[in-house]
Write a structure and sequence with these properties.
This protein is an alpha/beta fold. The chain contains 18 helices and nine strands. The radius of gyration is 22 Å and the shape is globular.
Length: about 450
């Protein structure tokens, strides 16, 4: 009973701290994504954000039924109770570790609910077609990586004219949208959606997350028609490091393209943001990126790079993470543009994240690991989770192969995946992707469980 009371008051205090810097009218729910947003995935599934691992299938449900259905309504009620669903573990791990500045759910505080209840924001991720094989990417996000891994994925769901017809009333009521890939400027159906948006809802914001390598007449033509803004992925302004990360890209060409997009945004008064993936290759380059963004009045943002773990900063020993932190805390930036304060705030959020990761690394280092025993338990647990039988040689060999790509320090957290959401996701992943990609996605989920356990 005493533990229950302590847990209750601890949660109450955590919610109060979480809400401290949120708008007063947004404190009635942990996350507003289920009320305001949708995301379309490459496999024909619908989510409420890119980190939400549960989904609704468009092959089984018309889009209107998904948005107005009871399952999404139940999720909305959970959010109002601060009862975070298991499918939202990405944000839950940050919330329960009190790392509130990195809770992605808070980004949905800035969307107002439509009076007609349609979503105001849609995230389109309809294809993995890409021309690069970035060091941190996997087959699910890049067809080029898939080719290199011998995994030419053939998704069953095709986004066709029927989908576009269902989508039209949603497009009419949009305030903002983001298009990711793959590389969005290589994905044909996006041009159809953009043409429709420019005709029926020309004021809606279009944010394209691009690697900056594709700039042809087709791109130049469409961006003149709509309200286009750009998130350009540039992980370093050091040529060698950039090309080591963005495999297949030419640094000089991307810099020329960046100049074009920057001029467009300046002329049209649109947004340009440089988005990075902080990792072991480029962590020393990040302060330079922040200052360059300040100098040019560009936004700065970062992705939480958790996989592949061998590149991730969290996988360093905690004393190495502390060295990164010391370097970052010594940085001083010129606040010489309107974007500067927010950029510096974002950089400080990266520091907060690394401080949390240092504690996780310290916790993981204390776990005593017998490599053979840990791997055996992990393989058996994963087999049970996906109902693979020991006499099924194909599954048996694949699971052993997947285990080779999972860090030993995370293997003991496999029990977290016993709920139905994770079991279904794992089975789908094994059907779709190569072993390395499955292992990277699984490691991502295991890491979030490790974070929750560290701060429990």
């Amino acid at each position: 009973m005493i533990r229950s009371f302590k847990k209750y008051f601890s949660q109450k205090k955590r919610i109060k701290e979480y809400n401290k810097n949120r708008p007063h009218n947004k404190r009635d729910a942990f996350c507003w994504a289920p009320f305001t947003a949708l995301r379309f995935h490459r496999n024909g599934s619908v989510q409420v954000c890119c980190h939400h691992i549960d989904y609704f299938s468009l092959s089984e449900n018309p889009l209107q039924n998904v948005w107005l259905g009871s399952e999404l309504e139940n999720m909305r009620n959970q959010m109002k109770q601060y009862d975070i669903p298991p499918s939202c573990n990405f944000c839950a791990s940050e919330f329960y570790s009190n790392n509130f500045s990195n809770v992605i759910a808070k980004s949905y505080d800035y969307y107002s609910i439509n009076e007609n209840k349609y979503p105001v924001f849609i995230d389109f991720s309809l294809s993995n077609r890409c021309n690069l094989a970035c060091a941190m990417c996997d087959s699910s996000l890049s067809s080029k990586v898939g080719e290199r891994r011998g995994n030419k994925i053939n998704f069953d769901f095709k986004y066709d004219n029927d989908f576009l017809k269902q989508l039209e009333p949603f497009l009419r009521n949009l305030k903002s949208s983001v298009f990711t890939g793959g590389e969005p400027f290589l994905i044909d159906i996006y041009y159809q959606i953009w043409e429709t948006m420019t005709q029926i809802n020309p004021q809606a914001q279009i944010f394209v997350t691009t690697n900056g390598t594709v700039l042809n007449d087709r791109v130049k033509d469409i961006i003149q028609k709509g309200n286009f803004n750009f998130n350009i992925s540039i992980d370093s302004f050091n040529k060698d490091n950039y090309e080591k990360i963005r495999i297949g890209a030419n640094y000089e060409q991307v810099m020329q393209n960046l100049d074009y997009f920057a001029s467009y945004c300046k002329e049209k008064k649109r947004e340009l943001t440089i988005t990075i993936c902080p990792m072991q290759i480029n962590w020393k380059d990040i302060p330079e990126i922040v200052q360059k963004c300040n100098d040019n009045n560009w936004g700065f943002s970062f992705n939480n790079l958790i996989k592949p773990w061998k590149l991730a900063l969290w996988s360093l020993p905690n004393d190495e993470i502390d060295k990164v932190l010391l370097f970052y805390k010594q940085q001083e930036f010129l606040e010489n543009s309107s974007k500067s304060p927010r950029n510096i705030q974002t950089f400080n959020a990266l520091i907060d994240l690394l401080q949390m990761w240092s504690k996780v690394a310290e916790y993981l280092a204390k776990i005593e690991i017998d490599e053979n025993r840990a791997t055996e338990i992990f393989v058996n647990s994963l087999s049970l989770l996906i109902n693979a039988h020991s006499d099924d040689n194909l599954y048996s060999e694949r699971i052993k192969s997947i285990a080779q790509f999972v860090p030993l320090s995370l293997m003991s957290f496999i029990d977290f995946a016993s709920n139905s959401h994770y079991k279904k996701l794992l089975k789908d992943e094994i059907e779709l992707y190569d072993d390395e990609t499955v292992a990277e996605h699984l490691s991502l989920m295991l890491f979030h469980k490790a974070v929750v356990v560290t701060f429990a």
